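Q: What would this chain look like folded?
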Amino acid sequence: MLDVLGAEIGKGLRVQLAHPIGHVITLLISTMMYLGLQFVLGQGELRQDLLPQTLVAIGGYWFLQYAALVMVADLIEEKRAGTFAQAQMTTAPPWLPMLGRLITASVFGLAVAAVASLVPMLAAQIAIPLRWAALLPAVLLGVNVLAFTFLLAALALVSPMIGALQSLLTSLVLLLNGSFLPLAFYPDWLAVLARVLPTTLGIEAITQTLFEGRALAEVWTGGTLPWLLAHTLALTATAGLVFVRNHRRALQESS
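A: My prediction, written as structure tokens:
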């Protein structure tokens, strides 16, 4: 099993590293878009009171957007080439190659998010404090993002509209997870809607620990951490169930 997992990760890394210019262009677009939007929203200036929170939020979006892009694009390409069914002809459980793809996607998603966040920090002198209390929400945010990425990949196994669906959902995340303005600026009904989307609750928990100085116990009793945990578990379970159903359908359609 470890051989299958290692082979899948190695294949994914080679495919991604074969096109480094694409990653550079993605980084340039991401950082320019963020700083440009903040400049417009700040009416001609970069507001230092908003930049730290929005940078954390858009960092979460970049992780999600790029990890999903890598994993879904890889699956679509294999289905078009007709090699998806061949890749399943192994004694390893079907979720194992998908786990390999998810690891590859998470590596590139994290790398892009880290570098894309570092550039605005240096260019606009954005200071983000580091606190141990933010570690658990950050881990849950990562799991939340990867569960959503796995769900998109599971949908891509059978849906010809996955490109449009992925674009719609990731655009909603960018619009509402706090990348433009912190959640506190939203009307109540919009904040509730935003918390249904991936990343929003994780971003909210992280910003409460980093910028409001709250301890984990306070984030828990305030409700954000329990909702983040429940959201992540529900998303993970949904992704697993959809994958089992759609993987069976994809193999039947290929045979």
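Residues 51-81 form the longest helix (31 residues).
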